[in-house]
UniProtKB/TrEMBL annotation:
GO molecular function (one): 4 iron, 4 sulfur cluster binding
Cofactors: [3Fe-4S] cluster; [4Fe-4S] cluster
Taxonomic source organism: Actinacidiphila alni
Keyword match Cell membrane: no
Function as written in the Swiss-Prot or TrEMBL entry: Ferredoxins are iron-sulfur proteins that transfer electrons in a wide variety of metabolic reactions.
Superkingdom field: Bacteria
Keywords of this entry: 3Fe-4S, 4Fe-4S, Electron transport, Iron, Iron-sulfur, Metal-binding, Repeat, Transport
Keyword tRNA processing appears in the UniProt entry: no
Record protein name field: Ferredoxin
NCBIfam families assigned to the protein according to its UniProt record, in alphabetical order: FdxA_Actino (NF045480)
Co-factor remark: Binds 1 [3Fe-4S] cluster.
Domain 4Fe-4S ferredoxin-type: 30-59
Pfam family, one: Fer4
Amino acid sequence: TYVIARACVDVLDKACVDECPVDCIYEGARSLYIHPDECVDCGACEPVCPIEAVFYEDDLPDDQREHLAANRDFFAELGSPGGAAAVGRVGADASLVAALPPPE
Ligand code: F3S
Ligand code: F3S
């Protein structure tokens, strides 16, 4: 799967959302999250993020590897809705992201 990592937090550019052919990029409160089971690894989201927040899981920098689990954790309660547009903005985050310091 592809993973949205640290740089997205409190930025949420959302250019990636428009590129995803299966609508599997979901919006939390402080970040977006890629559904690890719905993502088909097409890779379209990775180059369009202006701040390079998207990585293939094997390419995550070592200090951001925990975001792989965070992207999965985000869906613990949502399950697999099968499309982000119908879900809309979820006012919560994975615990890893929620615990990050607020923007300056
Ligand atoms: Fe975030 Fe980049 Fe998408 S900032 S919302 S991963 S375009
Ligand atoms: Fe969508 Fe990116 Fe996966 S465009 S299918 S989330 S690689």
